[in-house]
Amino acid sequence: MRHSFFDSAGIACALALFGLSLGYSEHSLAAAVPDGPAAIEAGPFVITPTAGVEIKHRDNIYLQQNNQTDSWIYFAQPALNILTQDRNNTYQLNYQGEAAWYQVSRHNDDNDYFDNTLSGEAHMEFSDRWIAEGFISWASLHEDRGTGLSEGLIGEVLPKPIEYDQADVGGSLQFGSDAEVGWLLLKVGYMERQYTNFKELTRPRDRDETTVATTFFHPIAPNTDILAEYAFKRIHYPNPFDNLAQLDSDENSVSAGLQWEVTPNLTSTAKLSYIDKEFKESGREDWDGLGWTLELLMQPREQDTILVTSTRHPEETTLQGNFIKRDVFTATWTHQWSDRVYSELGGLLGQDNYAQSFDNREDDIFNASLKVGYEFRRWVNVYTGYAYDRKNSNVENLSYRDYVFNVGVELSL
Description:
The chain is mainly beta. It has three helices and 19 strands. The protein has helices at about 5-15, 155, 200, and strands spanning about 40, 45-60, 70-85, 90-100, 115-125, 130-145, 160-175, 185-195, 205-220, 225-235, 250-265, 265-280, 285-300, 305-315, 325-335, 340-355, 360-375, 380-395, 400-410.
């Protein structure tokens, strides 16, 4: 069973399309369009433009416990993919944009934003035994009001969303084959995030992360491998708070698990990990414990697809504690009622524990959503959806509820 560096990213992208709008996560599973968008051939390049338009109503745009503010929001989502291929080698350039306009703002706030992401990917097969992949991206993004660094009452004080730039670069090298003892996958990655406004609040949260991982896969059945993995991550904050212990840390994890092929293009994975997080300064308490990753794709009938994910892992904190111990479980069910009509039902349960926070903060998060789509034409897909989002926190002014209704159109050539 061959492995691609982007396999897990592909599953994550499928989740991201489902619109489970949580403060720290958005998930989705999009129904497959049989023919797909049309492309423009320009010499050696294949160019695929797409666009989305959406209208959304949210009951609590600032994610406040009291005095909620509702608003209609209008979205435009242009995208462009440029692909070229040389034998088994492929190279892609991508652009993804999202602009949003809010009908209602308060305190003379400016809630509008325009996110942009540029990325490039390369897949190179030197032989059946040697495969290399790489990616690079730059993004200008924002944090939704009431999330990240603008949680709670801070979200009411700031006059606009917090913005940041993020650069990512990385790659992988795969050696071996299924016909032999097994194969080895080496990965490296680097991420740098810089906040661009409200610098007194955000500058100490600028960070960069360096990741190195190696995974060995050994076949035990025609479409099933056992795996053993070691990963190292170094997290660095270049502008720490004055008079506070730095948040710089190293994370080491050792994992074992299974990977099995569901279809020729998608795999499921189950991993159990031991994670050790060590802070550079003694003023921060180290942590070690168990983590896991589950990505389970099932297709009980041709028209049904079920995707279940579960993770436990440490995340960098926003405003409190040394880090966040995060548990997340998601499930999405897509049903194809006909060639044109589909529905998507999803749910998410999550818990965030803020390690060594002064108030022992713990958040319970729940989300449920339903989406119904109709492929009016090959190049026009219309949909509508409803979502309920809730966070219960043991810290005052951090709990909230949000009800979201949306209608959208996806366009292509």
